[in-house]
Amino acid sequence: MKAIVRSARAGWAIGLACLLAACSGDDDNVPPAPTPTPPAAQLCADLAGKTIGGATISATNIVAAAGTVPEYCNVIAKIPPKLNFEARLPSQWNGKLHYNGGGGFNGMMTPPSADALSKGFADVGSDSGHSADPFTANWALDDQTALVNFAFASVPTVTNATREILKVRYGKDADRSYFEGCSNGGREALMMAQRYPAQFDGIISRAPAYNFTGLLMAFNRTAKALAAPGGAFTSGKVATLAGAVRTACDAQDGVADGVVSNPQACTFNPATLRCAGGTDTGDSCLSDAQLAVVQSWTTDFSLSSGNFFLNTGWALSGNEDGLFAWPAWVTGANGDPSTSVQFGFQLGMVRFMLNKDPALNTLTYDPNANPGAVMSLSALLDATDPELTSFRARSGKLILWHGENDSAISYRGTVRYYTQAVNAAGGQANADPFLKLYLAPGVDHCAGGPGADTVDLLAALDAWVTTGTAPGDLTATKADENGNPVLSRPLCRYPNYPRYNGSGDVNAASNFTCTAP
């Protein structure tokens, strides 16, 4: 009797459940109960302690939404022996991956890209395989693995591991992948297009230090000129030089506004500032030793042996006196060139990468004494190959960008690379479908300066890759310290520049037209 009662109760319960769920009499038509999706915090926590794609995840944490950046999971991981990276995985993912490149000698974790995360991208950055101050290179003294990772290997290694992490977290790989970097990150960007053309669908290379070895050899040459008797610059002399360039060239873009936007038309001759007799007579002129510094800085540089090209000279911009222009990069604080950023970089390369001698006086170093060492390091570090056939063949897209007031890396060098790449592609008509160059007047290294330094290149690249909409002339902006826009200008496709129309607000892009030089 009890068994009959239990059976009746079970049948009643099943019947009631079917009634509430609108069951049919055919068991095959019963839809399976949906599996609830775990909350983002749990999915994030579940990654901790796992080894995925060769990377061991040591920790994860949910980062709360802030401003335009949505909630994301920060994944801290390591690939042996010491390649550290962080993947930032949005709780609401757009299905795409963004790699944020490094800077200097790397060694520090690349910070999250607020721009990429705000658009829903998964974002990743690394330390490139060593932990150090990005302005020092002592880690390269006796660690070839770290040097190779820094040179080219870290980015594809981290990218491949991150793709596997995406599959675990989201159940799928990225639909599209992009790389974006400035300075050394710009070199990494071009390295990917050249050596790993299948790694990324689109690449943004800002102010690329693509000729890393030659660039730092140019730093060394200018350091010697500044260290020569009478070569150092006071702040007054830097101001004299910058002011003379602005006076001669600023208005050639249609308006004298403190930004030389048509540098191709600037023919200023520094020799006009020569002190009487060539000796230093004050801040209103330049001595012969100081003119030699300008000569070193503005001219191309090659090894005398085999005519091996090293670096393209800088253009005089008229904004050399900006805080983050010559005073930071070239002449140093209070006229002491040994405090400049360029001096520190050349010190690191010459001592720890080229000569493996921590005590070497780099001001006595001659790259022509051992050209083989320079060329060998160049073959490892530099991304100078203009042949992009494989990248182009798989519909890759590449955007180059450079500020014209960059005192770290010559924008002329980026123009040189662009021109070589266009020629290698068989001309402009063949290059245009995959390659664009933008020059930003008055903009310092990667950002800053009096020019409009902010532009959404990632959105332009994404549209180009996903819809085939090639970027044309863009609009760049500049904000004050509170984030309020104070300036907008056209960001013109090379070789055009923004020319003032002759009337209207000089701070509004609508009153400028992209014009052929």
Automatic annotation (TrEMBL):
PROSITE patterns per record: PROKAR_LIPOPROTEIN
Highest taxon listed in the record's lineage: Bacteria
Secretion signal, residue range per the UniProt entry: 1-21
Keywords, comma-separated and alphabetical: Calcium, Disulfide bond, Hydrolase, Metal-binding, Serine esterase, Signal
Molecular functions per Gene Ontology: hydrolase activity
Gene3D superfamilies per UniProt: alpha/beta hydrolase
KW Chloroplast (keyword) present: no
Family according to the record: Belongs to the tannase family.
Protein name as catalogued: Tannase/feruloyl esterase family alpha/beta hydrolase
Organism of this sequence: Hyalangium rubrum
